[in-house]
Amino acid sequence: MRLILPVILFAVGLGGGVAAGLFLGPGSDADPTSDTEGSVAEGAAGTETPEAEAETGPDLPPGDGIFVTPASDETEYVRLHNQFIVPVVRDGSVRSLVIMALTVEVGLGQSDTVFKHEPRLRDSFLRVLFAHANAGGFDGAFTEAQSIEPLRRGLRNAAASVIGEGVRDVLIVDITRQDA
């Protein structure tokens, strides 16, 4: 008699879970936003929007982590997967950490060049970021336009020295300073 109640509760729970899964599954009419034929991923004319490609990029498998987003017919944005972590050292100790995410703006079809030279590109970016930190560039109100413009110019020049003239700009898409 003691085993009957747990078995009955298990069967009722399992049946309820299966029924909810069938009712709310992708083929269901219960949730109009779960339409798999894609009113969200398709534009008005039935073509994919750039937002749908921005998740994985047009030529990359899902889950790659590096994003290529076509900006226009002439430009692509290549987001570098790993963030850049820059220690800010004062008086011989780390006072804060600056964490940045960068995106390289290149001409159409140049994304493979960015991927091919990514280790050298990251090294060049880190050199510029460390020099900026050592010069006091991340102290105070470091996100003001006049404070961050030398950093932007340095990153752009570093990318151009590695990749060449295909680089149009380097965009700082995320920046955070964490004080110790």
CATH secondary-structure class of the largest domain: Alpha Beta
CATH topology value of the largest domain: Tetrahydropterin Synthase, Chain A
Shape label = elongated
Please summarize the sheet with the most strands.
5 strands, antiparallel
Backbone structural class: alpha+beta
Measure the end-to-end span: 62 Å
State the oligomer.
single chain
Number of helices: 5
Helical coverage, percent range? 25-40%
Order of helices and strands: HHEEEEHHHE
How many independent structural domains? Answer: 2
Q: What is the radius of gyration computed over CA atoms, rounded to a whole number of angstroms?
A: 24 Å
Please identify, by name, the CATH architecture of the largest domain: 2-Layer Sandwich
Number of strands: 5
DSSP strand content:
15-25%
Folded structure, characterized:
- The protein has 180 residues and is of the alpha+beta class.
- The chain has 2 domains: 4-34; 50-179, 2-Layer Sandwich (Tetrahydropterin Synthase, Chain A), CATH 3.30.479.
- 38% of the residues lie in helices and 24% in strands.
- The chain contains 5 helices and 5 strands; from the N terminus they run ααββββαααβ.
- Strands 1, 2, 3, 4 and 5 form a 5-stranded antiparallel sheet that branches.
- A hairpin with a 4-residue loop joins strand 1 and strand 2 (75-79).
- Helix 4 (118-134) packs antiparallel against helix 5 (145-163).
- The chain starts with a helix and ends with a strand.
- Residues 30-65 have low confidence and may be disordered.
